[in-house]
Amino acid sequence: MRRSAGAAALSAATPASFTMRGAALVLVLVLVQMVPATAVCPAQCLCNHTALTVSCQSGRLEHFPIQLNPRVQRLDLAGNRITRLHGSIDYYTGLVSLNLSSNAVERLDALTFEHQRLLQDLDLASNRLELVARGSLAGLRRLRRLSLADNRLVRLDDGALGEADHLQRLDLSGNRLRALGGALSGLARLQALSIGSNRLTRVRAAELRALTDLRQLGLCHNGLQTLEGAEQLPELRWLDLSGNRLTTLPDLSALTKLSHLDVSANRLSTLAAAAPSTLRWLDLSANRLSRLRAADLAGLPHLRQLRLCDSAQLREVAADALSGCPQLHTLQLCNNSRLARLPDRLLVATLRRVSVRDCRLSALPAPAAAADLSWLDARGNQLSCNCSLRWLQEAVAAGRAADLRCAGPGSVSGRRLSLLATAELWCPPPPAPLALSLGLPLLVLALLGGAFCALCRRRRSHRTATAGVCVATLAQSHGTKGAAAAAGGGREWPRYWPCEVGAPAPHGTGKLHTAASVWAPRPVSAEPRLVLSADSVRGYSSDEQYSTSIFSCTDQPALALRPCRPTGRETRSARPPTGADQRQPPSQPP
């Protein structure tokens, strides 16, 4: 009864306002019970108890916080001074994502993540880890992404990473690894692996054997001279081999799904190895290529983007270099300091984006489909702004090309192409072809030469005819026996020399009284010639077909059909006698 009386008294004594305040207090107590008593958000953090996220980035924390909501799912502690994790992380069994990058964590103890069975994303980049021991990742059965980049790792225990057997993305770049060993065994679900900027000189086939589902492989900036075991990666689509020491391309023909290949900053001087025909993106920049030929890009029907920049030795790009790439969309030939010329047919019709910035070009050929270009950058060259660049001026005006300054000619040097009037983009008339410029003078010379030769031939024929008559006359005057004796061969010469031409003259009307040059053809190649002088006939042999000699016509009866004409002393070759010239004279002189 005392209890009932007290309650009744209290009820009677409590005013209405007190009843309202009590209801509010009850509501507050209920709300407080919904949040654990230990859930305190530090001043350096931002806590969202509804989304169950906490961010303590760059909060200068030196220890892993333990006063946070134990049900937190996403915890960001990047940029602090945390050195150890063991024990502290056990309070948060509901974590899905944990970012501990840019701290000072020096080691991962065994079973550190034993209670993080829901964790999918773990970022430990930019810490001070030197070793990942076996058991360090035990318990992370749902882990999908792990970053250990930019640590001090020199060794990975065999199977250390395989304990996270659902891992899909792994970043080991920026460490000091010299070998992979068996650290990757058990990662059959791994799809992306980055091991760039380490100290690898070789990747053995056995180290990649377990990665049957790998689709992206980054091996940039190591010391690789070759790549083994690529054929064991049938699903590979993206391969980065840039910044190594490759002198030849590895054989990648077995990678029938590869679409992205970066081999820039190597030591390639040729592109002899076969690349898979599935390539869509290729970077050949910063190598030792001196020329790009059609054979270098043959068999790449699906290539869409080609980059060949920063190649100090590149001097030539063949006109048909892109003929094997019928789907090429983007071409980058930037910063090639020795590239001074592009052939006219290089920029094929499929191109939409072109960069030839910072080369040594003095001219730029118009693309096959200039109107279809979406962007062209030719700045930093030595272009001469003339009529050949009117298409580029139109592209600049349409916003499809970068404006540039002209390097010449003098009247427009240093001015922007977009500000030039159309009349200022002119070309001098082309010079006449060499054949046309020399044709008329040569034709005149040929006609003059022909006329001169015809005149000489006519005079020669006349002199030869006269000389033949004189030879026949002297031969008969001295007798055939005397001529034969003078020849010294005991032969009897024909009574008439076989060169008698000319019309008959009245018998006995003329006398030989002048000096003439005799043109004496040889009867046969082995026979001596007749050289007639004033008083005798003598013979001699020679390898020349014709020769001349001087004789004086004496005051003999004129047996010739025509007397000798005075010609003076001459020495020249004569044409061989024709058949008409070699006819036999009559047995008796007229």
TrEMBL record:
Gene3D superfamilies: Ribonuclease Inhibitor (3.80.10.10). InterPro entries: Cys-rich_flank_reg_C (IPR000483), Leu-rich_rpt (IPR001611), Leu-rich_rpt_typical-subtyp (IPR003591), LRFN (IPR050467), LRR_dom_sf (IPR032675). Keywords: Glycoprotein, Leucine-rich repeat, Membrane, Repeat, Signal, Transmembrane, Transmembrane helix. Residues 381-428 form the LRRCT domain. Residues 1-39 form the signal peptide. Residues 560-590 are annotated as: Disordered. It holds the Pfam family LRR_8. The chain crosses the membrane at residues 434-455. SMART domains: LRR_BAC (SM00364), LRR_TYP (SM00369), LRRCT (SM00082). This is Leucine-rich repeat neuronal protein 3. The lineage of its organism: Eukaryota, Metazoa, Ecdysozoa, Arthropoda, Crustacea. The gene is Lrrn3_0.
